[in-house]
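Key result, reporting period 2: structure in, sequence out.
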């Protein structure tokens, strides 16, 4: 894909998330990034409950931080510890960052990077009005992170890397900013079968976390090429249940699943 095509993809995704960021979706949310606020699937909390977030987690974040856009719960696999520095790739309105901030505590730090200005503004407002002093949101592309080399203990991300037109560069950047012995703990979409042709080239499908997904082997290969070790890419069969809601009647669950992606930067 050429640089011009890459930028076209990013702009399409950015416009989609801009629309979501400026919606007043405190009461309802979409099941996937392409859905409108008046989705069939209920509130953002309803959606996130299906993804594995506890009622306690959902009740502790600022109102409006959870947009119900993920495909899993990276918090459940990150094993965050007090004092750690965490980076969320594609942080949206700040949902996972605010959860992480509780776990790393006052001695820790959480950075959220998102390429959509409206999302960053919304997240910063959430942090300011709710007193999250250990969370910082930065505008930037996950392929070009505004983060120093070897400065992060843990990278989390929730259904975002599949949106990137240059996933290898994302993993290269993740490796760069991680400290020695740092780790990835990511939820994302992978393909389990060849996508239909009408979905593959569709930008709306890409922005909906569908057509941009890679196979398990492709993800493993990219992580290895970036220098990661202890790589695990584990599709979750139970994710078929909520993926059905993304396009009712479309049988998407036959082609994609949510996966747990873990890897380490050797010390």
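The corresponding designed sequence is given below.
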């Amino acid at each position: 894909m050429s640089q011009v095509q890459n930028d076209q993809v990013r702009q399409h995704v950015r416009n989609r998330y801009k629309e979501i960021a400026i919606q007043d979706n405190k009461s309802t949310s979409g099941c996937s990034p392409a859905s409108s606020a008046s989705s069939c699937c209920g509130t953002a909390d309803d959606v996130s409950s299906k993804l594995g977030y506890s009622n306690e987690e959902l009740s502790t974040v600022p109102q409006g931080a959870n947009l119900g856009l993920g495909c899993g719960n990276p918090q459940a696999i990150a094993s965050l510890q007090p004092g750690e520095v965490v980076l969320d790739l594609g942080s949206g309105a700040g949902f996972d960052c605010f959860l992480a901030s509780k776990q790393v505590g006052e001695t820790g730090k959480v950075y959220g990077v998102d390429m959509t200005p409206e999302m960053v503004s919304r997240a910063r407002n959430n942090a300011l009005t709710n007193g999250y002093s250990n969370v910082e949101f930065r505008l930037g592309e996950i392929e070009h992170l505004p983060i120093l080399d070897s400065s992060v203990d843990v990278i989390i991300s929730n259904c975002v890397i599949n949106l990137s037109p240059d996933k290898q560069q994302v993993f290269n950047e993740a490796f760069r900013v991680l400290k020695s012995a740092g780790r990835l703990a990511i939820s994302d979409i992978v393909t389990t079968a060849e996508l239909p042709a009408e979905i593959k080239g569709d930008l709306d499908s890409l922005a909906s976390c569908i057509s941009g997904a890679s196979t398990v082997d492709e993800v493993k290969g990219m992580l290895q090429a970036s220098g990661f070790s202890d790589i695990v890419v584990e599709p979750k069969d139970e994710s078929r249940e909520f993926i059905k809601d993304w396009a009712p009647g479309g049988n998407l669950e036959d082609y994609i699943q949510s996966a747990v992606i873990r890897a380490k930067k050797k010390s």
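The domain at 3-264 is CATH 3.40.50.150 (Rossmann fold). The chain has one domain: 3-264. This case is discussed further under Risks and Mitigation.
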